[in-house]
Amino acid sequence: MGGDNIHPLRFIMTNTVISYPIPAYSNPPIQPSFFSPKFFFINEIVLGITTVVTTSVEHDYVIGQSVRLIIPTKFGSRQLNEKEGMVISIPATNMVELNIDSSLNVDPFYLSATPTRAQILAIGDYNTGAINDSGRINQGTYIPGSFRNISPWG
Q1: What is the DSSP letter of 76?
Q2: SS3 for 120?
Q3: Residue 62 counted as domain residue
Q4: Core-most of 3, 9, 43, 153, by most CB within 10 Å?
């Protein structure tokens, strides 16, 4: 090895140039509006053995959709805050019936003019299993209630 006394660690390269394609955008911020189903503001809650929620606009929930209620204190029904339930029927395009029993010890709901509004949020679905004859092969068929990326950035 001759008279070469160069330490092996001296061969560590610096200023390495890596050449590869750079995407048009990199890791864009997550925007709730880029996913469906979304969250909706609540205008009314009818209490009972099941709970009926009326949203301020038409929703995109389906039967089997798992949702969470966010009810700020000033709206009443504080016992429903952070409750999770499943959509069991859709009586109207802006209403969902949930399998949450609110018949006992739940304060009535009322609208409040606060900046933070009551909301219903999609958190998942109970629709599982094969979605087409090809099993897990993606053929563009979505499980009803599943989240779909509807971002304009693809």
Answers
A1: B
A2: strand
A3: yes
A4: 43
Cα(53)–Cα(122) distance, integer angstroms:
13
Rounded Cα–Cα distance for residues 36 and 142 (Å): 12
Q: What is the pLDDT along the chain (154 residues), one digit of tens a residue?
A: 555 555 555 555 556 666 666 666 565 665 555 555 678 999 999 999 999 999 999 888 888 888 899 999 899 899 999 999 999 999 999 999 999 999 999 999 988 888 889 999 888 766 554 455 555 555 555 555 555 555 665 5
Alpha carbon 41 to its chain centroid, in Å, reads 14
Q: Which domain, by its residues, includes 109?
A: 43-127
Could you tell me if residue 153 is inside a domain? Answer: no
Q: Locate tokens 């509006």: which residue?
A: 33
Side-chain-facing half-sphere of 102: CA atoms under 13 Å = 26
Query: Three-state SS for 40?
Result: strand
Closest CA to 53 of 63, 62, 43: 43
Residue 104 is part of a domain; what is its CATH number?
2.40.30
**40 in Cβ contact with 57 (< 8 Å):** yes
48 part of a folded domain: yes
- The residue with tokens 């909301």 is 119
Q: Give a yes or no: residue 115 inside a domain.
A: yes
Q: pTM score, two decimals?
A: 0.63
